[in-house]
Write a structure and sequence with these properties.
The chain is 40% helix and 25% strand. The chain is built from eight helices and twelve strands. The strands form three sheets. A four-stranded antiparallel beta sheet has the order 1-8-3-6. The chain has a four-stranded antiparallel beta sheet with strand order 2-7-4-5. A four-stranded antiparallel beta sheet has the order 9-10-12-11. The chain is globular, with a radius of gyration of 19 Å.
Length: 231
């Protein structure tokens, strides 16, 4: 069995397939290596390749009409991207950039189309994945339109803890090297507004941010900052 086969076995989209089916898919996949801050594809380019993350973090962004960048999502091991555009001639819906060094499995869109046509189980899994992504984006939208700046920042931090956090002796560490600008782009807010909240949270000894990631000392204490202060 080749390396691509072993990687495919751990991709959620292909769970339930037989070894023979996985072996066939492995023959149409290519393992690609990307350095940190590499551009995988650009918004508006022709949709030619589907990617599966073997290791690392990928950031997907879109440029708004006013020219501001909006971070649509952070993807990690096991994720497939892009999430839309499989059933038409749509271009890439966003720009994908590596946040860390990454290993990605790539399948050409032509091969992936044939795979969907020949395997209803995979086609169903893709539809389910698209539905889950829509629900995720709806949740994200609710986060960025409700509440004040503090609430938006804290809810986003707690989501990062839930999705990417690793428990350590000193707290929960989110190993994603995000800049303050990246964080602001996730919320569609100014860097200055986000900085004020993050600096206050650091002053209150609730978190620390460095080039390697975000350390939340006590997620429960951070959660409590969302509760209204009782008189």
């Amino acid at each position: 069995m080749d390396r691509n086969f072993e990687i495919l076995k751990r991709v959620p989209l292909f769970s339930g397939l037989t070894n023979d089916e996985l072996e066939k898919i492995s023959h149409i996949t290519v393992l690609r290596h990307y350095r940190k801050h590499s551009t995988i594809f650009v918004e508006g380019q022709p949709f030619r390749t589907v990617y599966f993350i073997q290791s690392g973090i990928v950031k997907v962004t879109r440029v708004e009409k006013n020219g501001n960048e909006q971070v649509m999502g952070l993807l990690h091991k096991g994720d497939m991207f892009p999430h839309v555009g499989f059933f038409g001639d749509s271009p890439y819906p966003g720009t994908a950039v590596t946040v860390t060094d990454c290993q990605l499995l790539a399948i050409s869109m032509d091969d992936f189309d044939r795979l969907l046509d020949s395997n209803p189980l995979i086609a169903k899994s893709v539809m389910k994945m698209m539905d889950q992504r829509l629900l995720y984006l709806q949740r994200r939208l609710q986060e960025v339109i409700s509440g004040d700046v503090h609430r938006k920042v804290v809810i986003t931090l707690l989501r990062l803890v839930e999705e990417y956090g690793t428990q350590r002796e000193d707290g929960v560490f989110v190993s994603i090297p995000l800049t303050h600008q990246d964080f602001a782009n996730m919320l569609g807010m100014s860097r200055e507004s986000v900085n004020r909240v993050l600096n206050q949270l650091k002053k209150d000894q609730l978190l620390d941010i460095n080039r390697k990631g975000i350390l939340i000392y006590d997620p429960d204490a951070l959660q409590r900052t969302l509760s209204p202060v009782k008189e």
